[in-house]
Amino acid sequence: MTVSGALLPVLAAVLICGYYLGGVRIWRPWIDALARLTAALSTVTYADWLSFCRLLAAVVLQAAFFALLLALLPVDLGSLFPGVPPAPDLIRSILLGIGLLGVGATMCQTILQAAMHLVPHPEFSRSDDWSMLTQSGWMAEFRRTSRALGKPACFVLSAAYIAVEETIFRGVVLQSASGYGPTAAVALSVALFLVAQCTVTVNWRAAIFPLTGAGVLGLVHGVLAVNGVPLALLIVSHIVMFAIPMLVDYGRSP
């Protein structure tokens, strides 16, 4: 492994942490200001319009950030997307997404119950109170966007965001860290993926749900990726895991 190769994971980590921890917090106020200026053009409530603007900006700017990573890092996209997966593999990836949703939800509830007893809070005394925290941060943006645009349009935006996100963390990061060995590469991918989930998390209680789900998905997808599972199948699995609760819950009124 050359010196430049050894530094690739470090560069990738610095860029990713810089964007998700710093960049997102920089551009959000500008998008909020733009949403205020254009709110009169919308027929939905200001809160829903603001969430749509934030989500659309997140999709576009994450894609721009991905383009920057491609320019700075030696990523072989051809090896990540070798071709259209066969139908049986697509079905298995859908089932994988459903399974990951079930495991993630079970783990979230377990951790939630433990947190309720170990670190009680007077304003969050019931499981339902803690569960409301899942609607904060990005979850609130997806929910309001679904209400503003309808579930199909919100699904398209969400799928676009997830596709780029999956390519960054199970594609760019794993390729950049491949010289360190599969275990270290997967560990770095999972760690950076967890960092990205904290972008707009309001507090550690609200972070329980996205971090637990990201930990489950990131670990399983990372292991599968380094063992040759095509990225397209992981994207489908990720979309399924996210889409089911989105389509069921995010359209409801708060």
Structure description:
With 254 residues, this protein is mainly alpha-helical. The protein has one domain (3-249). The protein contains 10 helices and no strands. It has helices at 3-38, 46-72, 77-80, 87-118, 127-131, 138-149, 151-176, 182-197, 204-226, 231-249. Helix 4 (87-118) packs antiparallel against helix 9 and helix 7 (151-176) packs across helix 9. The longest helix has 36 residues, at 3-38. It is globular, with a radius of gyration of 19 Å. It starts with a helix and ends in a 5-residue tail after the last helix.
- Shape field: globular
Main sheet makeup: none
Note the total helix count: 10
Mean pLDDT: 86
Number of strands: 0
- From the helix content, strand content and strand pairing, which structural class follows? mainly alpha
- Tally of individual domains: 1
Structural Rg? 19 Å
Question: How far apart, in Å, are the first and last alpha carbons?
Answer: 53 Å
Q: What low-confidence regions span 5 or more consecutive residues with pLDDT below 50? A: 250-254
What is the N-to-C order of secondary-structure elements (H for helix, E for strand)? HHHHHHHHHH
Task: Determine the strand fraction and express it as a percent band.
Answer: under 5%
- Give the % helix: over 70%
Structure described in brief:
By secondary structure, this protein is an all-alpha fold. The chain has 10 helices and no strands.
Summarize this structure as a short list of keywords or feature phrases.
mainly alpha; disordered C terminus
